Amino acid sequence: MSVDTAPPAGTAPLGGTAAPERESTGRRKPRRRFAPYMLLLPATIIVLVAMAYPVIWQLITSMQKFGLAQQFGAAPEWVWFENYVTLFSNPTTWFVVLRSVLFCLAAAAVTMVVGIGLALLMQATSKGVRLTLQIALLLAWATPVVAAMTIWNWIFDWRRGLVNWLLTNLGLPFNGHNWLQEPLSFFAVALIIVVWMSVPFVAFSVYAGLTQVPGEVLEAAQMDGASPWQRLRLIIVPIIKPILGIVMLLQIIWDLRVFTQIKLLQDRGSIASKTDVLGTYIYQLGVGSSDFAMASAMSIFVLLLTIALSWAYVRNLIKEDDES
């Protein structure tokens, strides 16, 4: 006579664990986890308070008549989109926008090329040379902007500057040449300064990415006859592509909003109307002309322009996140 040893329904077999309860459809009921959202909530509130309030205030101000009288308590008058119409009906605004975008793209491209080159140099050199280069880059990066601009203004000073002295001693006619008077030479000097201040961040970020490239992959490629350029283009760049993307995005945002370097160079004797970029143009509208409503309208436009320039990378991030 055989004995049925099957366990009763609803009990776990010996040595096993109870099967998870499932719905009648056979699918496991999803569990909601609120802990990650609760941990993100404080940071989200801080960002909204710190960033959303100024943006909303500028948006409201850009639709009002807000000048010096309103600064002393007069009630602002609502003009809605009249400030935007006036601002973008002025050809000067579009010249400033074009000048700023071209300078931004040029500065970001040069910074990326020089920064990647220095990162590759740090990886290829010995430890002593690498440490020396890293310390030099760190000092350049840590120098306050105003202090650095004091040195750069002396270097390009038209009366007793170092650049003019060197070029004159080489027999070139640069004695008393004013680099900041003409817009082309002005932006050439500004480009050098902005790149010099931005390269350390790119170099350190890219070098950190290069340290994560597997050495055995590069050795195998070298044994297969791949040249250094092929290894860089086909192996290294695809691996560190996410780092290059975010660094390039940050450079575009920072270079589009550059202000201090341009303003301090303008104060040395250049014509502001010919060398204004978005940051200094907003300053001239607000502080210079006491038209804070127009300055707010231009600030909102710069925000939208920054989003437009960076949207391609943000969309790519969203796409990669959805695929993963």
From TrEMBL:
Keyword terms: Cell membrane, Membrane, Transmembrane, Transmembrane helix, Transport
Source organism, top-level taxon: Bacteria
Region called Disordered, residue ranges: 1-28
Subcellular location: Cell membrane
Domain ABC transmembrane type-1, chain residue ranges per copy: 97-313
Gene3D superfamilies: MetI-like
Biased composition (Low complexity): 1-19
Bilayer topology annotation: Multi-pass membrane protein
Pfam families, sorted: BPD_transp_1
Cellular component terms per the entry's GO annotation: plasma membrane
Gene Ontology biological process terms from the UniProt entry: transmembrane transport
Transmembrane region(s): 37-60, 94-121, 133-155, 184-210, 231-254, 292-314
Primary location group: membrane
Residue runs in coiled coils: none
Family to which this protein belongs: Belongs to the binding-protein-dependent transport system permease family.
Name recorded for this polypeptide: Carbohydrate ABC transporter membrane protein 1 (CUT1 family)
Organism (species): Leucobacter komagatae
